[in-house]
Specification:
heterodimer, A: 117 residues, 85% helix, B: 169 residues, mainly alpha, 4 helices
């Protein structure tokens, strides 16, 4: 199993976690900003509408944060499972190679003993 | 106690009390039980431990000798010719999983953008049934669709990773 199959779900997890952080910031930043309007007829109505649209549009981002976090966790679990499977295959390959080397060394030594005798 | 003739007088009938050679006829000796010695030919040898299979595990770093063993192992494991449907259907199902997952992710993004548009609408959501239904779908479905899409993509990756080691170089 190649390493890219482990890195792919890990990359998905990183992307989802980054989106979760970004969505949280997108919701929190307008809440932390302060704006003052005088309401004396001099403020531009379009500017005030844009401000409230900016504040109100943070709510969908806020509702997506738990789903993004869940997707990131699931991708992490998939990456860990694939990494464990890869390590298992590597361990099996190493033991098979060691036993094969040992058997070939034993056959070589037996052949040399026969040639000497 | 047996003599050179192989007769033990303690148990032989002719040495017992009351033995009458005219009345007691010598009975033939029963054939000895037990292993039979083979008179001619070599003894057959049976292996107590069968020979190991050609390939126990597929190594990550194949070599020339290992490649021959892997080829022989694949030839032994190859499905018979009368089962072409399984090998043709399985990759198609794998790609279907990926396509469904990507479709779910795309639908989640579209519904999320619609939810953002609805949240910035200054006039609010209309009271018609279609408007309420669209608002509900846009607000409630992007999250589950996102998770389902990510699970499908991860499942496709896992299927490919588990299946491909036999066909990868």
């Amino acid at each position: 199993m190649r390493l890219r199959w482990v890195l792919a779900p890990a990359g998905i997890a990183v992307v989802m976690a980054g989106l979760a952080v970004g969505a949280t910031a997108r919701y929190l930043v307008p809440q932390l900003q302060s704006a003052a309007f005088t309401f004396d007829g001099t403020e531009d109505q379009a500017e005030m509408d844009a401000y409230f649209a900016w504040v109100n549009s943070g709510w969908p981002y806020y509702t997506m944060v738990p789903w993004l976090a869940t997707a990131a966790l699931l991708a992490v679990v998939a990456a860990l499972a694939l990494a464990a499977r890869r390590a298992q295959l590597q361990a099996g390959s190493a033991s098979a190679t060691a036993s094969r080397d040992a058997s070939s060394a034993a056959s070589v030594s037996a052949g040399s003993a026969e040639s000497i005798s | 106690m047996a003599t050179d003739t192989g007769i033990d007088p303690r148990y032989a009938a002719q040495f017992q009390r009351g033995f009458d050679p005219a009345r007691h006829v010598a009975e033939p000796m029963p054939e000895p039980r037990g292993p039979v010695r083979i008179s001619a030919g070599p003894l057959t040898v049976a292996q107590r431990v069968p020979p190991p299979p050609p390939v126990a595990e597929r190594p990550l770093i194949p070599g020339p000798a290992v490649d021959r063993a892997v080829v022989a192992h694949r030839a032994a494991e190859a499905p018979p010719a009368d089962e072409p449907e399984f090998s043709a259907t399985r990759p198609r199902l794998e790609w279907a999983v990926l396509l469904v997952g990507l479709g779910m992710l795309a639908l989640a993004v579209l519904l999320f953008l619609q939810a953002v548009d609805l949240s910035t609408d200054y006039t609010g959501i209309g009271s018609a049934f279609d408007d309420q239904l669209r608002s509900l779908a846009a607000n409630a479905l992007p999250g589950p669709l996102l998770v389902a899409g990510v699970v499908a993509v991860c499942l496709w990756i896992a299927l490919r990773a588990v299946r491909l080691p036999r066909s990868e170089p």
